[in-house]
What we know:
alpha/beta; Cobalt-precorrin-4 Transmethylase, domain 1; Methyltransferase, Cobalt-precorrin-4 Transmethylase, Domain 2; Rossmann fold; 4 domains; five-stranded parallel beta sheet; 19% strand; elongated
Amino acid sequence: MKNGKVYLVGAGPGDAGLITVKGLRAIQRADCIVYDFHINPRLLTYAREDVEFIYAGKRGGHHEMTQDDINRVLIEKAKEGNVVCRLKGGDPFVFGRGGEEAEVLANEGIIFEIIPGISSVIAVPAYAGIPVTHRRVASAFTVITGNEDLSKQERIFTHLRALNNSETMIFLMCVKNLETITDKLLNEGLNPQTPSAIIRWGTRPEQKVVTGTISEIAKLAKDHNISPPAILVIGEVVSLREKLNWYERKPLYGQRILITRQLTDDYLKLEELGAELFVFPTINFLPPEDFTELDNSIKNIKSYNYIVFPSPRAVNFFFKRFIFLGKDVRDLKGVLICVLGQETANTLKKYGINADIIPDEFNAEAVAELFKKKVIHESPSSIRILYPRSDIALKSFAKAMQNAGVVVDAPETYRTVKPSEHAKRLSRFLMEGKITVATFTSPSSFNNLFEMLKDEVKNVLKDLTIAAIGKTTAKAIEEKGYKVSIMPDRSTIKDMVEAIIRWGKQK
Length: 507
């Protein structure tokens, strides 16, 4: 059987934005992704829908899979002809056992490629405002693993030149042996007043930094309940943190925001301001199972006076079928087009069409009133409206127009389905308190999530700050006994994001 290929990919230290372009391409291309605990789950959302996920674990001493298990899976999946992405925290070759995995693949004759990642060695101190080198302070840095049995070695730090104050020392995986490490350094002559910092979950919203002298840092870490993953930085560069601390000063620092739909560019502003995005779409969208109604409407497109598109998704699904049936924009001559919202208008422009009508309010009831006042005059029965919709969309607009005597065709243009493959992982994140804000853009996005969760997780959801895109969505949330704390005046993602930002700045 033809062998596949394995990409050993460094995912970076935590911030999803620190993945390399080449690493992202490997994720997107993969048939199978074998991932560790420390990678940001946001990265998994870039994978194909049909990808196979295999969780390798390695969390706080507990291994979901042993290293031998991981090696075996990589070999088996590659020999089945798959493209395998082995997604590892940080860099695969910096204390990541990537070298061992590459050796196993080489021994089996499997093609592999190493895609380096941004190591926590440099990224974590940087996010804490600590440069590992500085022209006036430190001219070199040394990196040491801190999770070995240090007590068995008599003078393990001699090569670090402990008396050289111009060198920065960085210990990875150091929490368990922190006291032993600091005692060794002090015994070998390091100045007890040397600035030090221990950084937990660096580059993530839960980043926690404790600073002090080398003589007190072990006790301070214990007092502040520092647990893995954490790194220790020792040297004069730590004194620069007070001036250079940039990440923790962002207005949304510490916020972890759940996105329950596909990620769009509008959400990225939240990341720029310090939030971390957890993307777990609770709705997937597919073409209708039966195209009969939609095809009839498209074939008779010239019979309509208006087309009303309620969403960008309606535009995309409609025109995909429209073009498939051999139509083009010339067939829309004389048909006026109304869209709900600027985002829908922007999507329409991608097909070379400008909307004729963009109502000030983006809900079906308001559009119905607009048509009654400004569009329908003496002969409502002569007006025909096409209203492409989802399978679960409310037909309030269509009913209002029909009651006014207007002919409205509302064919199912796409259908919604409830995904469930990531429900277990999402429940774990909620139970562990990793999410602070949950956002919902439709009643379905909330109701589907609600149905996925067990009772104990539903109770945790009540502790979150909930943002709803508009009144209809808020009503669905409140009917289940939850409080909506954030809701924009206009029902767009962009406005909801701005409302979250205003909320965050007030915290």
